[in-house]
Amino acid sequence: NVLILDFGSQYTQLIARRVRELNIYCEIHPYNKIPESLENFKAVILSGSPNSVRGELVLHPDLSAIKGKKPLLAVCYGAQYLAHFSGGKVAESNTREYGRANLSYIKTSENFFRNIVEGSQVWMSHSDTIKELPTNAVLLASTTDVENAAYKIEGEDTFGIQFHPEVYHSTDGKQLLANFLVDIAKVEQNWTPDSFVDSTVAAIQEKVGNDKVVLGLSGGVDSSVAAVLLHKAIGKNLYCIFVNNGLLRKNEFESVLNQYQGMGLNVKGVDASDRFLSALKDLSDPELKRKAIGNAFIEVFDDEAHQIKDVKWLAQGTIYPDVIESVSVNGGPSATIKSHHNVGGLPDFMKLKIVEPLRMIFKDEVRRVGASLGIDKELLGRHPFPGPGLAIRILGDITPEKVRILQEVDAIFINGLKEDGLYDKVWQAGAMLLPVNSVGVMGDERTYEKVVALRAVESTDGMTADWVDLPYKFLQKTSNKIINQVKGVNRVVYDISSKPPATIEWE
Ligand code: XMP
């Protein structure tokens, strides 16, 4: 078990993911909330930070229970922090230190650099630099521009590195983490999808006993994996509810419901399309639409849950990135861009206890766990789909006719991606129905019909995204199909905006 102390770096979650890839369990905690008991942590990693050890906003935790007592790896800010407060000198750097660099010197006698040779590429991202090491430190590596790229404190298993081993572009980064965690800290590599399944099943059985549990399925990866895991633990005591809000993809309700039943889950499909559509009637503001859908979902789910006698628990597919407490380094609250209704978040009045079997794992691990549970590859590889569904892809007010049009367009686009082997190259794709008509000509007739926009993005977590350069031939074919086959659409455009400054969804 490894403790990662977060100083607010954009890469902290990446450190955790790299550690997990080594089959080692780790947890991220804010730098100022160090767990009281450190007994279970065999090693500690300090993350980077956008702050400076020289600034007013220096983040200054008390590491006396850690430094010199447990193997400690300090990355970037962490390395500067340790150097600064142990008698070294940190100053603003006068050369640019962003991006690619190569280790021009390595003290090869150290286990820390086992299997890493001079010339190894590392990734830098810092504006301060360690000018002088503390007197009890030994230099372990340098780059051409950064003399003190890595150091060790004598007599301790304490290491500082200026570069970021967690990013993909540090080619030997994972090896370095393995050297530190496995060779030096002697942490066991026993965190695998299978071991996760075994321990989680046991933990659920212990926690829930013979109680009944209700879970809202969405058709997405997280709730599906959570359901199969719970089903493995408590069998028929798991009651799944899959709500059709009338805003799903074409035929999705029936096909996903069948798939769930085929997996042996005890699932009830509830078609509440009319209820959602009437809740949405005449609403065109995106936030009001989200709220109306969130509320309708709670009502429907509540009605259904009340029909399950003596249900005690609500299961949710919450994953680790939703749980990690974010470190706000400047103290300011972040702006609400969209009130992402996580459909499944329920009000207190339901008085159910919560069980979240995936709350400590990342999305890629959810998929690996799903595979280890034997869940269909196709289901595990599904693109994310927003809880409010097509409602936030139909700009403005929603009518059954608009839903029908968009379902048709979306199906042509998504099936086309699958047919051409492009689906798995895209992180998320969908179509937007715009609230404008445009003039066209079909045969000899003037048309005045809807415009749709296609969007396909690559991303790792949805926080940032870039549009995908889909082949022109594919776009051409798809556009033709849509205009020829979907009545009411006479124009197709392709969205070439990145996030930021745009967002993935249009509303
Ligand atoms: P944006 O549009 O904010 O989307 O760039 C980022 C990711 O979040 C999804 N999304 C939502 N998911 N409820 C959800 O469950 C919502 O209200 C919602 N809005 C956006 C979006 O599909 C993308 O994957």
UniProtKB/TrEMBL annotation:
Taxonomy, superkingdom: Bacteria
Enzyme Commission code: 6.3.5.2
Occurrences of domain GMPS ATP-PPase (ranges): 191-382
Gene3D superfamilies: 3.30.300.10, 3.40.50.880, HUPs
Protein keywords: ATP-binding, Glutamine amidotransferase, GMP biosynthesis, Ligase, Nucleotide-binding, Purine biosynthesis
Subunit comment: Homodimer.
Record Pfam families: GATase, GMP_synt_C, NAD_synthase
Organism, scientific name: Polaribacter vadi
Pathway this chain belongs to: Purine metabolism; GMP biosynthesis; GMP from XMP (L-Gln route): step 1/1
Stated role: Catalyzes the synthesis of GMP from XMP.
PROSITE patterns with a match to the protein in the record: GATASE_TYPE_1, GMPS_ATP_PPASE
Active site: 76 (nucleophile), 164, 166
UniProt GO cellular component terms: cytosol
Binding site for ATP: 218-224
Catalysed reactions, semicolon-separated: XMP + L-glutamine + ATP + H2O = GMP + L-glutamate + AMP + diphosphate + 2 H(+)
GO MF: ATP binding; GMP synthase activity
Name of the protein in question: GMP synthase [glutamine-hydrolyzing]
